[in-house]
Write a structure and sequence with these properties.
The chain has nine helices and seven strands. By secondary structure, the chain is an alpha/beta fold. It has a seven-stranded mixed β-sheet with strand order 3-2-1-4-6-5-7, sandwiched between helices. It is globular, with a radius of gyration of 17 Å. It starts with 7 loop residues before the first strand and ends in a 7-residue tail after the last helix.
């Protein structure tokens, strides 16, 4: 009997991304990955992104699901909602990817291969391992801030990864269950850090593959002062929190 390919669900949170969303779906379809699905998590975008997603769900080149949320309460909450839905719908592998075209879809096959052929619990698309790069048009102060953020997080939490704030990841479904993804409370970059911390605290392995991170070309960045402040505070909260460090049963 021919084996069934694992169900791979790409979770894409959106807020005012009507121009980028069709491009992302086309790029994902071009990968020709068996059993690949997209789950759009739209936070009631006023520009009509939700309607664009519904159209893609009806006539897109690959299966597209849509989760319409009525409250815009941050990227982390959108990812938690999307990942939880993906798990409930039988995903074996969950990819988290932003909607601004900064994450190169062509890296997904290597990420999935690394996830399925090594002991990695999660694979990061990393800007800071050999072969990775940030956008060439980033100003020097943004490059410095990104490098400092990774140093800061690793100094406090000892994650031992090069790109601790990476938002492009491939997860085993069992990993998301083991770290209790529904219990993650952080947003923004802090969400990425908390997810990584939960993996490390449970003795699981994080792998990194190189990507070239691109600056968005359409739409507006969602980074705010509140997100930056949370990103500075959360590593300390995690370090002294019992809940995040609580071990749980993982897959054998």
């Amino acid at each position: 009997m021919e084996s069934v390919a694992p169900k791979v669900t790409v979770v894409v949170p959106t807020y005012n991304e009507r121009d980028n969303l069709p491009k992302i779906v086309e790029l994902l379809a071009a990968l020709a990955i068996a059993n690949l699905h997209v789950l759009v998590v739209d936070d009631n975008s006023p520009d009509g992104t939700g309607e664009v997603a519904d159209t893609l769900a009806q006539s897109g080149p690959i299966p597209v699901g849509v989760l319409h949320r009525t409250v815009k309460d941050g990227l982390g909450r959108a990812y938690v909602a999307g990942m939880t839905r993906a798990l409930s719908e039988g995903a074996d592998i969950v990819i988290q990817m932003d909607a601004d075209l900064s994450h190169p879809t062509e890296a997904i096959p290597r990420m999935v291969e690394t996830l399925t052929t090594t002991d990695a619990a999660v694979v990061l698309g990393s800007r800071y391992v050999a072969g990775g790069a940030v956008a060439s048009d980033w100003p020097w102060h943004r490059k410095a801030l990104s490098a400092w953020a990774n140093f800061y997080v690793n100094a406090i939490l000892r994650l031992r990864v090069k790109d601790a704030t990476a938002g492009f990841k491939a997860w085993h479904a069992d990993t998301l269950r083991a770290i209790d993804v529904e219990g993650v409370q952080s947003n923004g970059y802090a969400f990425q850090v908390e997810m990584n911390y939960r993996v490390v605290q449970r003795g699981m392995t994080i792998a990194e593959v190189p990507i070239r991170f691109e600056e968005r070309t359409d739409g507006v960045s969602k980074m705010s002062l509140a997100v930056q402040l949370e990103s500075a505070r959360v590593p300390w909260t995690l370090r002294f929190s019992r809940d995040a460090a609580q071990p749980s049963r993982v897959r054998g």
